[in-house]
What we know:
Chain A has three domains: 7-53, Uridine Diphospho-n-acetylenolpyruvylglucosamine Reductase, domain 2 (2-Layer Sandwich), CATH 3.30.43.10; 58-173, Uridine Diphospho-n-acetylenolpyruvylglucosamine Reductase, domain 3, CATH 3.30.465.10; 178-283, 2-Layer Sandwich (Enolase-like, domain 1). Chain A is 36% helix and 26% strand. Chain A has helices at 14-24, 37-42, 78-83, 85-90, 92-98, 104-109, 112-117, 124-132, 149-152, 225-231, 238-249, 262-283; strands spanning 7-9, 28-31, 50-53, 63-66, 69-73, 135-140, 143-148, 153-155, 158-159, 166-173, 178-184, 194-203, 206-215, 222-223. In chain A, strand 13 (206-215) and strand 14 (222-223) form a beta hairpin. Chain B is of the alpha+beta class. In chain B, strand 1 and strand 2 (14-20) form a beta hairpin. Chain A binds chain B through residues 1-8, 10, 34-35, 38-39, 41-42, 49, 51, 53, 55, 79, 82-83, 96, 99-100, 102-106, 108-109, 188-189, and chain B through 1-3, 5, 21-23, 25, 44-47, 49, 52, 58-61, 64-66, 68-69, 71, 112, 116, 130-134, 169, 171, 173-175.
Amino acid sequence: MIPAxxxxxxxxxxxxxxxxxREHGDEARVMAGGHSLIPMMKLRMAEVPxxxxxxxxxxxxxxxxxxDKITLGAMVTQHELIDHAELATKAPILREAALQIADPQVRxxxxxxxxxxxxxxxxxMPGLMQCLDAQFTLHGPEGTRTVAARDFYEAAYMTARTxxxxxxxxxxxxxxxxxxxxxxxxxxxxxxxxxAAVLISKSGxxxxxxxxxxxxxxxxxxxxxxxxxxxxxxxxxxxxxxxxVAAALAEIDPTxxxxxxxxFKRHVAGIIIARTxxxxxxxA
Amino acid sequence: xxNKMHIQLNVNGEAHEFLAEPRELLIYALRxxxxxxxxHVGCDTSHCGACxxxxxxxxxxxxxxxxxxxxxxxxxTIEGIGSPDALHVxxxxxxxxxxxxxxxxxxxxxxxxxxxxxxxxxxxxxxxRFGMAGNICRCTGYQNIxxxxxxxxxxxxxxxxxxxxxxxxxxxxxx
Lengths: 284, 175
């Protein structure tokens, strides 16, 4: 498959990216690892006359851990997330989720920034970032602004990022307590039929804080405050988990596709959410 | 609209320079321009891994990378791993343990396995299966591929002098 022709740019600074976007407007598009964009270009579902490759911009790289504040550069790959010992201690849910994305080759190229900025409901990082209450930093012609992950997603492939902006980093607080990311998929490399991210803190055998989010069960990632509320103050027994699952399922809107009809997806979602909640509680 | 670019690639220790449209995929640059035909085009959709090469220390699918992105990179293909007269331990092991039938996926399998054992020289069976999950084989059912890789790991660990890389990061299976 041969994509439409394009001019290739590899700027070495964000200023360089901004000036290319200014010059080429709608015809320009930035690319991180390319593992969503290149297949779309090969199918000619995306045409990008000016492709701006971000690989040479050092300021977009690296995982920084400053006390409890964790910053991931947009070009950090899934492989780097998996490989980072301190991150695995400070926020182990990142590693658990990244290990379930695609396959090894794709994880060497696929980036955090691409995964969260693309707005594909199938991507795992957006749901995870809901759970972590992460902040996304956007750099544009007017300067830099920060948008909460929970306010970022508007519809499939539609986000709060404007065409002139580049997502430069993702920040969130280190996690305490228990965590789990569970994903049901048909095969390696597939998107989730249903996936969930859960963080739970425990105090005296009871849930003291919880965060529950889901992947690929609506056209945007879903954060469920209702599910968290159903868990806090309980011993995470069957009744509490059932109530949390019911609250989470009330907030999703899955669509039928080759992973199954809506009823099946809701069934799988219920099982995955319950399993993720119990997994996080048991680790707390 | 699309201008040709001056591309430099170092493939298997040999420098190559040529002009190419940026949209040319790395797999076609390797196969059709440089006549390096070990990496295969299997699915052309980033699923099968037959086109796997090592690029700047990463296992990548050469069907999902523009030649422009690879500009300046160091690439190793199956041709750089062993030769008919001097097979790599993994190649010898695939032969010994019948780790291939039609052989189409084998260059990608072995190129990926070399990197896997570099990063994790003592993998469990589960880790081998997880680390090879980006490579599809339609003949073997994978049993003998896994067996070949585990046997090669043992062999390489038994001769520490011949194992050039010492991996340190074990990636356990997630499922």
